[in-house]
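INFO batch 0412 | record 1 of 1 | parsing
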Amino acid sequence: MYTHAVKNSANAAFDPLEFCDLCFQRGTPNLCETYKASFTKINSIHFSQQAKLDRLLNNLQVMPRIVNRRWNCVMDTSVRKEFLDSLWGIGISVHTLDDHVKVLTRLYKPEIRKLGNPNSVELPNMDSWEEFDPKTRSWNQVKVSTKNEKFTAKVSLGNIVKCSNMEGTNYYRTNKNGDSVALVPMERRAAHNIMCTIAEPTTAHWKPDTLGQYALIDLKELDNIPDEILSFLQRLEKKDKRTAGSLVFENDDLDLVRIALNCIKINLAKSSETVNIMPDKSGMSVPVGNIASERMRVLYDVIKEMGGMIDAKDDCLVISGKRGSTAVTFADNDKSVQDGRAIQISVSALEDPSRFSEILFMIKKRLGLLDVSLDSLLAQHWPMMNDSDLQYVVQSAISWYGSNPVLAGKILSENNKLVKIREWHAKIKEGKIRSNLDTITLGKIIKRLEQR
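INFO prediction complete | emitting tokens
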């Protein structure tokens, strides 16, 4: 069972490949199904096989793209099986979500480890302390006593407790230490893995939608489950903004969901309730002035560096180049589309570097703009409005450092980003936060900038 460190956030967005390290112990496949019907290249493919793969995707009318510097292709679920069957025919190996759930069944066994009797344990402070309840899979407040300037509480031996304060949440397990009981610090991920072994069996319910197309599971019914299990469910689910607070699955995938939950002693049962999914009102036009100026600034700056010109209207941007002009509008939907000379951009794409890059490439090709490195330009101009932005900027600089240290420095220093990145790096060095990024290389880039 996995017990090493990950992001210390219950609602963190998982890297889809983060939990596949044990899947590839016998060898890394060519492709991995990172999300349902979305495949990422993780191992090199012989050029002759790549040519066959390109023809296969062309026949399926699927256009591959680069996401986070990796080859990726996304297809409709209706052609997924045909694609997988064809891969075996051309000798390309793939790790599917069906394969991944089999690994989970080997890692997680539906056994129950009994807790020991309640014991008095010394606590380091008077902050808010809670003990895991195996029966309800929730947290109970711990009563803290004070005597001789020491803080103590009664906690079951072998159980998980957590302490919450302004700086975050820390997890501990109660272990025997000679004749006494002590708190052993644990990472959140390891704590949740242990919690699933001491938790008692329970039932989660799925609700059909009124049209009988999908199955919905309320996230509240899956509280305090291991990150590995939650990550798998998020990779399998159908993304739908209309069903916030629930995981949505195609009916055909319920068996995979059931297998994953059975690993941690959660039985899946059908609810008597149904869910009426409201009609999708996305796709409505968004005025230019309603879009975050920091996101729009990236579009302006990169188009300018490619030699293009932008004339802003209330409802669109008119972008001009050597081959004429195109009208760019914005909409609240999930896809950006090109229709003749008009381009409609999904507002959400302005927050995703890989999708933003595809849009810029589309504009560059249509208008005959300068052939520049979109990856490097985006990283330099990308704003840091949230943690995902910061992670993207830092990872981009780290990736470029080996081949172009000057560019790596520009990525961190452009648009007043360095101050925030320096603060973030300092917190990592002090142990206040954790990161899976190469912070050693990040430190080298920061030091190089400070020595200029």
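INFO post-check: Residues 22-95 form one domain.
INFO record closed
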